[in-house]
Amino acid sequence: MFVVVVTFQIRAGQMADFLPTMTQNAQTSLAIEAGCHRFDVCTDPDRPNEVFLYELYTDRAAFEAHLHSPHFEAFDHDVANMIIDKTVATYAQVSS
Predict the structure, then answer these.
(1) Which of 8, 12, 53, 88 keeps 20 to 30 A from 46, CA to CA?
(2) What residue stretches are annotated with the ABM domain (predicted)?
(3) pLDDT of residue 92
(4) Arithmetic mean of pLDDT, 80-90
(5) In percent, how much of the chain has pLDDT > 70?
(6) What pLDDT, on the 0 to 100 scale, is given for residue 93?
(7) What is the 3-state secondary structure (H, E, C) of 28-78?
(8) What Å distances lie between residue 67 and 10, 44, 48, 72, CA to CA?
């Protein structure tokens, strides 16, 4: 398995627009991408402008396919101006 974690810092006042778009991207990924096994969208009230993602893919190729999917490209375009910062880290599963 291939794990992707993403942390977004969202512009003040943009969370109400960002979260539904983010959630839709996650739901679509799970529904139509055979290589996407988990896509959690998380927030913490103590960090109101932060969104954390935990994504699980079959392998790196499945994640790359996700990045080139029409729904991800539309999401990425739609939220570009809402994001102050984005950090992406990837991990290969060592053992279960």
Answers:
(1) 88
(2) 2-91
(3) 92
(4) 98
(5) 99
(6) 79
(7) HHHHHCCCEEEEEEEEECCEEEEEEEEEEECCHHHHHHHHCCHHHHHHHHH
(8) 20, 26, 26, 6
Amino acid code (one letter) for 49: N
pTM for the whole thing?
0.94
In degrees, rounded to 5, the angle at the alpha carbon of residue 46 between the alpha carbons of residues 41 and 49 is: 55
Dihedrals phi, psi of 33, to nearest 5 degrees: -100, 110
> In sequence order, what are the beta bridge partners of 35?
none
Instruction: Give the pLDDT of residue 49.
Output: 97
Residue type, position 60, single letter = R
Tokens in use for 39? 């896509």
pLDDT at 53 over 80: yes
| Type of residue numbered 75 | F
